[in-house]
Amino acid sequence: MQEFFVLFIGAMFVNNIVLAQYLGNCPFIGTSKESGVAVGMGGAVVFVAVMAAAITWLVQRHVLVPFELGYLQTLVFILVIASLVQFVEMFLKKMVPPLYKSLGIFLPLITTNCAVMGIALICQREEFGLMKTVMFAFASGLGFMIALVLLAGIRERLAVRRLPIAMRGTPIGLVMAGLMSLAFFAFKGMI
Amino acid sequence: MNRLWKEFSKGLWKDLPPFKLVLGLCPVLAVTNTADNGLGMGIAVVFVLTLSNLVVSLIRSIIPPKVRIVCFIAISASLVVAVELLMQAYAYPLYQQLGIFVPLIVVNCIILGRAEAFAFKNPPLLAIADGLGMGIGFTMSLTFLGGLRELLGKGQLFGADVTWQGFEPLGFMVEAPGAFVSLGVLLAIMNFAENVQRRRKGLKAVEGPTHDCGSCGGCSSASNC
């Protein structure tokens, strides 16, 4: 139990997927202008990351390893993720329209979100079991969401401040992300 | 010939990928802790980008537009697998240094973005020129940022000591926070330089380029970015 707790906190704060591992930066900077959008994107990432990590784990264990196709990992993983995203989108549209309304527009973005594929790859490299993989993916997704929502809050306030014109938009967003990353650095001592 | 040069050279300055287009930020931040890593990553991207542009352009008439994104992904993924195998054979230490960012070239926005925005609409030669130019621009940016961070963070350049005795390296620069801050400051400097030029021409200063998801192929929600 304790092991899982350490893994959870570690993935969420200490090795935060965006602020310490540099994954998923495009959506992190791109969708952090409004907190509503940030929550939607974060939710979509948590949802897809967990499913993608579990499915790629199964594919790796039951298809790639037995047939000695390990070198095709990259190709297979991205195709699995792309079709999964497509499938989830269709499923939500038909079966759960309210959820589709809030997450749907973010789903096409997620195929090219390296956080999702990154999480799946990290789980393989660390050789986690299925339970641990799901746990890790969930915690990392939550970590992404926390960082995204926090940055969106900061940028909403920055939008009404007077800034040098060259700093507005992306540059100040990146500097703010750097300061947040510095703050998350403090968690390093925890584990 | 002229057109070819134009497509090639735009990636070197006018549309410099990480700074002017603000695309593919993950490797820009992650592997630029030293100039060596930046250069290695850049070369891998040049390889994948040029070939994927070529392939996409060659088969652009037989790809059904509806499933083009999946086709682009499949093409770039096969090329990335080739790069991975090549790196494992000839540059293993670099491969280990770059870690999961080698397979993640697949989801690098630059590859999909150029396939969607350029290669899908242009003949093979132009597509190659575009891919080479963009790739070299990307490599230059990565090497520059890597060199800057390595210099300030470790006092070294390409692994060799270059600073004077008593130089106190800023450890912050080679860690994650330094990556974000230095990229942000560099972007601001680029915007500032651009605005100085615009003022000289009598134009109004403008905000820098925003992160543009529209060029990350197939994104139907570009308006949210």
Task: Describe this entry's structure for a reader.
The complex is a heterodimer of chains A (191) and B (225). By secondary structure, chain A is mainly α. The two termini of chain A are 16 Å apart. Helices cover 73% and strands 0% of the residues of chain A. Chain A has helices spanning 2-14, 25-30, 35-64, 73-95, 97-103, 107-110, 114-125, 130-158, 170-185. Chain A has one domain (2-186). The mean pLDDT of chain A is 89. Chain A is globular and about 60 Å long. Chain B has 225 residues and is mainly α. Chain B has a domain at 2-158. Chain B has 9 helices and 2 strands; from the N terminus they run ααααααααββα. In chain B, strands 1-2 form a two-stranded antiparallel ribbon. In chain B, strand 1 and strand 2 form a beta hairpin. The radius of gyration of chain B is 18 Å and the shape is globular. The two termini of chain B are 37 Å apart. Classes of the chains: A mainly alpha (191), B mainly alpha (225). At the A-B interface, helix 2, helix 4, helix 7 and helix 9 of A face helix 3, helix 5 and helix 9 of B.
